[in-house]
Amino acid sequence: MKNEDEPKDKRLKPGDAQKLTMAEVAKYVGVSAMTVSRAFRQDASVSEETRKRIMEAVDALGYVLDLSAGSLSSRRSGFIAALVPSINNSNFSDTARGMTDALQNSGLQLLLGYTDYSAEKEEELIEAMLRRRPEGIILTGGSHTARARRMLAKAGIPVVETWELPEDPINHVVGFSNSEAMALLVRTLASQGYRKFGYIGGTTARDTRGSQRRSGFQKTVEELGLGPGRMISFGVPPITMEQGGQAIVSLLERWPDTEVVLCVSDLSAFGAIMECTRRGMKVPRDIAIAGFGDYEISSICHPRITTINVDCYGIGRQAAARLLDALHTGEATGDEITLTGYKVVLRESTDRNGVPTA
Amino acid sequence: MKNEDEPKDKRLKPGDAQKLTMAEVAKYVGVSAMTVSRAFRQDASVSEETRKRIMEAVDALGYVLDLSAGSLSSRRSGFIAALVPSINNSNFSDTARGMTDALQNSGLQLLLGYTDYSAEKEEELIEAMLRRRPEGIILTGGSHTARARRMLAKAGIPVVETWELPEDPINHVVGFSNSEAMALLVRTLASQGYRKFGYIGGTTARDTRGSQRRSGFQKTVEELGLGPGRMISFGVPPITMEQGGQAIVSLLERWPDTEVVLCVSDLSAFGAIMECTRRGMKVPRDIAIAGFGDYEISSICHPRITTINVDCYGIGRQAAARLLDALHTGEATGDEITLTGYKVVLRESTDRNGVPTA
DNA sequence: CCTGAAATTGTTATCGATATCATCTTGCCG
DNA sequence: CGGCAAGATGATATCGATAACAATTTCAGG
Predict the structure, then answer these.
(1) How far is residue A189 from each of residues A154, A224, A259, measured CA to CA in Å?
(2) With an 8 Å Cβ cutoff, are B12 and A156 in contact?
(3) Would the CB atoms of B130 and A64 count as touching at under 8 Å?
(4) Which helix (H) or strand (E) holds B151?
(5) Cα–Cα distance between A91 and A95 in angstroms, integer?
(6) Is residue B134 over pLDDT 70?
(7) Taking a C-beta distance cutoff of 8 angstroms, is the pair A195, A226 a contact?
(8) What pTM did the predictor assign?
(9) What is the biggest distance separating any 2 CA atoms in chain B, rounded to whole angstroms?
């Protein structure tokens, strides 16, 4: 569908209107380019009258500031990078929202990337981001490739790691202990009389938060003298709802007398519950199931799912706030650790009195 | 926790290592900066030997390319912008994944922004993106503010609108008719004998895809002589699972004899089903419910949800492909419309024979 | 051994804004 | 009315890479 012979083509050629530069706006208004540049900034000293005239011209001509030129000259890119494992996960998108909100009036934009739970992909993304010279960077977790660490160190910008408490933090940390959180859930359920604990999670170590939850489970079950936990590993993290369903089948085949199953996330817990329901088992009457993360689904589905509520939004907001602190104080603040909250949310899926049947 | 008096502070000051420039790498290797620049690109003619030496130096020194300088000089920013309504929505994140995959070896990066279903926020984001001079832009839907349209026209870059078939397309379109898709679902269910149709959706016109689905429903119900549809509007789009639950309660209060309810999305359908279950109604025995979007949850939950499956991933992949076409052919291709597929997926939630009870 | 094309490398100007410093107004106070 | 600080504006150099063209080297073929 080419039509090179149609001259009145309304489509834009490269550089059709694009060419417009600050100098041209300046000429149009009758001031210097520098004054136009100043008019675009809050603090700069330009008389209100001049700024108004400039902005009218900008509007009339349809000029759009060119940040790639600006950031080269000012050595400020005006954005911070944030890497999350997945965009399609309400926990992380809440975190992203927290970051965006915290950056609201800072003049900084958030650039999101997703790593797919892969340290290699994270490394690639870190490099891609650093090439655009972010003023700071927020990562999820504390597990990075050696090269990624080297690049970050060289970059000379503040780094915030989130959602975990890394053993060897790069800089700032905003998070909580996934292992402790899971331990709390185990102890809470044990105190309600549950004794035979099962666990469902992904197979590999890709998802470090998942592994931490798993080890928190394992450790606590043993501490309480409830023997080794009944662990099922299924699928590559992050495990899906469907895999949660498959996992509980294997688990119950192997240990039919299991009383309660903890899942690495609410999504797998939901899959497990649905699969049980489909097979004629009642949750929690025949088996209790709990998740992690307090996703929307857990308070809606039937039965409602017991879980750990994490302050996802707060993690994002505080991570961004830490970064802003670091930038304002000339990046001389300490490498602090900000602990964020979590709490057990007990719901129907582990209710010892069962749930009113539908 | 300041410690300005601790000189051996390992933390980085601004410009600690950052300073490294291409010229320094060049000096280190004993070539010109231009040669270093060439070494970073695939096509450029640099002897293998020189490139190797340069890359070793880059590694040793920890140099990271500066794209903000590069793109100013080359007038190519190396990224395309994509705006989606929400990142926490598996439909759109599948679309984003499709885009990322399609851009794989193009040398272009994807920059995501989310508009929160708001045209004003979209306008802001478009401006923020254009300031960084993307080489193309992908939007969701065809509803934009006048200023957004003006800015896009001026920008002189290819634009792809997705997920709908706008009446007044800017440039390329990759999508399908939401209205037709919903109509198909209505006809399919009507052919199974359903007669009394209800509909649940959000209130305002913010979500244009939602409104299109609604009007497709309305039109078709009337065409089939099934009277005016029983419409419940509840909550600001995108409506949540919980709102789906609240909506079905109002709907059944008002029209207790409703046989089947179509929802603007699977999420509200799920909420509606759970609420019914909780109130002792069986789906589909007492009432049938269907959704839209074929989210993971719909094939997992109990009962499984009848829905419309949309080729989300394909929308993203093709949108990016269209953009690449336009860029390669010197943006002289026609403003084409690429239709993407959808299909009805019949599941338990509308099964006329009921569903095996748990 | 010479010639010309291809391959490799270097030089210089430039992209479009902003930092920095200089200049020019304005207005207030003694 | 002089003087000076604060405010507004302008001129110029510069950020760090790449485009464009020039220069040099390499090498095949006669």
Answers:
(1) 46, 11, 11
(2) yes
(3) yes
(4) helix B146-155
(5) 6
(6) yes
(7) yes
(8) 0.91
(9) 84
